[in-house]
Amino acid sequence: MHRRYRPLAQLPSLCALALSLTLALPHKALAQAAAAATTTQAGAASEPLSLQACIDRALQKNFGLAIQRFDAANSREALTIARADYDPALTLTTGKSVNQSDNPDTSLVGTRNDTFSARAGVTQKVATGATLSLTQSLNRRGTNNNFALLNPAYNADLSLSVSQPLLRGAGTRVNLAPIRRAEIGLEIASLNTTSRVLQVVRDTEAAYYALVYARESLKVRTQSLDLAQRLYDENTTRLRTGVVTDLDVLQAEVGVENARRSVLVAQQSVRDAEDRLLNLIGQFEFDQALGTVALPPTATFSPDFELSYALARKQQPEYRSAAEQIKQLQLDLATARRNRLPSLDLNVAGGYNTRDSTLGRTYNRLPDGDGYTWQIDLALRMPWGLRAEKARYNTALNNLRREETRLRQIEQNLALEVRSAVRAVETNLETVTISRKATELSARQYELERARFDAGLSTSRRVLEAQDDLETARVAELQSQVNLRTAMAELNRIDGTSLALYNIELPAN
């Protein structure tokens, strides 16, 4: 499941390249730039801020992940709704009525009937599609008719009825399909949450590395400003002794101003990088100071496409989600195939009924009395041609085939993503080595050019050019280290290994 890493020493930090040059008396412009750089760095807390801590905060506070959790919660409720269709349903109805007939043609007083009725029942749906109903009813009838044999008269009955589809809507697969579909929907929601977690982890890694790059780049720009300022101060001193010309002083001053501009731009990049990271790991916490950050130790490995692709097919949420959606559409197709049949329902009902003058005697006679009723019937309904049913089946079949094709497309795109991610890691592994060598050579070039200038064999312009080359090389090496880690983060997102790498445990459904 996991790659076999061969731990190496941490790649050397570019900003740890120390130059043994000391500054002369600071120029006013240098003091202002240094103060600005110090202010930027002071905004960060002195406590270290690890990548693991940032990821933990992002998983707790990221807005996108919080929104995704609501979708997962709704999927759980949808499953409860589907299962509730098989919960027994209780019914209770009561009523009272009075009826008095007017007899204008006779001297008799109109007949008055008082009736009270109550009915209670329970209905249960079962997996075969049948509906079972058990009902109990009671009627009390009182009258002012002196010829009534029972006054009041109580009627009670107990009945059981069953309605079972025989064609359309029959069978456990069709009737349990909504529950199974909701279960798959919950799994899809969980996979979507996993996908969002992987994306948040990858984005947090990228934002963290970008902040490291921005801060370290600011240090490089500040050191370049220091070198440019020293050259300017030395040329100013040499101008008084006639060793250099006004052009050398002017070139050195241009170098100072260009370095100051680079520092200002780098300071803005640091603030922007801090905001982007805070946007991922917090909620409206842009004024919070971020601690010191550093590129975490990395381990090298030989990227393996076959291994990464196998992991991606097994763990990549989008691919697994598409496979689960196919299962849902297979259920829809099975239901649509069954529903192409006509409706044929078998209805069976039977029960007992009694009638007596008291409530107690009525209920006592209920199971032993002579009153009973039963019925059985078949109900057939078949729309002419079943055109709508056939069209629904064809639609379900087309949806299934479409999703199967989309799964193949996702599989191909996944292979492309893995190939690209593996290639990016391989390229950046080589780039780190090349960039480190380029930095070493640029540092030697600068030192030699500076020595030639001190000996009067070079010009300020050539020293500034060598200084620019050194700065570019140092920034490029830093960028190569960041690119390597970002490429590894993307590969870990694709094959799903970020969860194990950062000890992330997702809640069960």
TrEMBL record:
Where would you find this protein in the cell?
A: Cell outer membrane
Signal sequence, renumbered to the chain: 1-31
- One short Pfam name that applies is OEP
The protein's GO terms of the molecular function aspect are:
efflux transmembrane transporter activity; porin activity
Q: Which GO terms describe its cellular component?
A: cell outer membrane; efflux pump complex
Coiled-coil stretches: 386-417
> Does Nuclease show up as a keyword for this record?
no
Recorded hits in SUPFAM superfamilies, A to Z, give: Outer membrane efflux proteins (OEP) (SSF56954)
Gene3D superfamilies for the chain:
Outer membrane efflux proteins (OEP) (1.20.1600.10)
Keywords annotated in UniProt: Cell outer membrane, Coiled coil, Membrane, Signal, Transmembrane, Transmembrane beta strand, Transport
Entry keyword Flavoprotein: no
Major subcellular site: membrane
* InterPro entries cross-referenced by the UniProt entry: OMP_efflux, TolC-like
Output the PANTHER family linked to this UniProt entry.
OUTER MEMBRANE PROTEIN TOLC (PTHR30026), TO APRF-PUTATIVE OUTER MEMBRANE EFFLUX PROTEIN OR SECRETED ALKALINE PHOSPHATASE-RELATED (PTHR30026:SF23)
UniProt lists the family membership as follows:
Belongs to the outer membrane factor (OMF) (TC 1.B.17) family.
| Protein name listed in UniProt | Transporter
